[in-house]
Amino acid sequence: MDTIASLFSFITTPVSWVIVQFHSVYGKIFGPDTGWAWGLSIVSLVILIRICLIPLFVKQIKATRAMQTLQPEMKKIQERYKNDKQRQSEEMMKLYKESGTNPLSSCLPILAQSPFFFALYHVLNGIATGSTIGVINESLLNSARKAHIVGAPLAAKFTDGSSKVEALGASLTDVRVVTAVMIVLMSASQFYTQRQLMTKNVDTTVKTPFMQQQKMLMYVFPVMFAVFGINFPVGVLVYWLTTNVWTMGQQMYVIRNNPTPGSKAQAAYLERLTKHVTHHGKTRRRSEKTIVKAIVAKGRDRNEFERSFINALTKAGLVAQADGTVVKGEAQAVAQTEDGVTATGAARRQQPKRQTKAQRQSGAAKAAGDSTSVASDAAASSGPSASEGKTTSLEKSDEPQDAKPAAKQAPKSGSNGRSRAQSGQRKGGPQRPKSPSKK
């Protein structure tokens, strides 16, 4: 560890200078030789570094979600070229290039704060060995060696012997109890942070190898911190515990307000957003508008949580707009043109009105009357037989009953089928007997 820390000695002077500046402020409040002054100086250093790393944290979130989106395509490439590792790597790099994704982006915050971590370790190791380093002179060195956090010196380690601990003005039991508690808290915070990411902010609709890797890291990282933690000075444990707590809180904020689509966190967020929007009738914050805008832009590609959100707005009489705002349903009504096409270009379907039984019966009677009148017109214009006064069985006749048998005589050839249809006779059924002909 000393060799690694020496590699980052170029940043030791800036780190020691920041610590000294914070110490000068807290020393006036708690005293220059107290553990509060030096401990809060380390905590303030962590907060300053993490604030500067917020842009990298945003890139990490985007890179992680982009990697989750690409997992199905990556799995297809692995299955297609499972016997050709070189071609598989080429296709992976091509996929990253086309999507603009960098796998290393998810590690940017850890990589960026590593130099500060090792520089702080180098400074605290110099305090433990009694050597000046950076801007820490003899007076500051003596002040730091006297500083204790809950009975443990800043430069003491869990693995230190009793003679070295006594030289720093502390007991071995106090040092090991304090360092053990801090190591447990550090590992627990790391485990909770990773578990929170896996259980709440992962798209559960897609099962990918990426999820298995994250699950494995959830158990590997805490074990690594516990193993390496016994070799960290108390001041470094303060640094790492503070940065873990910061990461946990930062991630909780992101999961609550900007969850991954398809995750349980998104379901909880959209449920809260539905209550908020239906109560106020609009989206009030920019983050809410961004979420609603993304959901509207997806169209039919929405997941089940997003569809439930849109349906809940519709039931409440609200409509989500493309710009992320929410308006009342009446404001979305569009005027219909004369040809039945709405302003958006889609034709509205007209549903026929349901008729009563009396209306249906009167309509059927009217249709039958129309067909009778058509048949009468056709018979009136059908040649000489119509002009001689012959009538069909569908027409009313003013002639006496004696004249009716004459009207039932067979018509002339050429109008046989038509006359039968007009007289009401059935083509396929039994025919009426003809009257005997007179010879």
How would you describe what is shown here?
The relative contact order is 0.06. The N and C termini lie far apart (138 Å). It contains 18 helices and four strands. By secondary structure, the chain is mainly α. Mean pLDDT is 74; it is low at 331-348 and 378-425. Helix 2 packs across helix 6 (108-129) and helix 4 packs across helix 5. The protein is elongated, with a radius of gyration of 45 Å.
Instruction: Report the structural category.
Output: mainly alpha
Instruction: Please state the CA-atom Rg, rounded to the nearest Å.
Output: 45 Å
- Mean pLDDT across residues: 74
Individual helix count: 18
**Largest sheet: spatial strand order:** 1-2
Distinctive features:
439 residues; two-stranded antiparallel sheet; mainly alpha
Topology overview:
Elements: H1 2-7, H2 12-30, H3 35-52, H4 54-80, H5 85-99, H6 108-129, H7 138-146, E1 148-149, E2 152-153, H8 162-167, H9 172-200, H10 209-229, H11 234-257, H12 264-280, H13 286-298, H14 304-315, E3 318-320, E4 326-328, H15 357-380, H16 384-387, H17 404-407, H18 416-423
Helix pairs in contact: 2-3, 2-6, 3-11, 4-5, 6-11, 9-10, 9-11, 12-14
Give the gist of this structure.
The protein is mainly α.
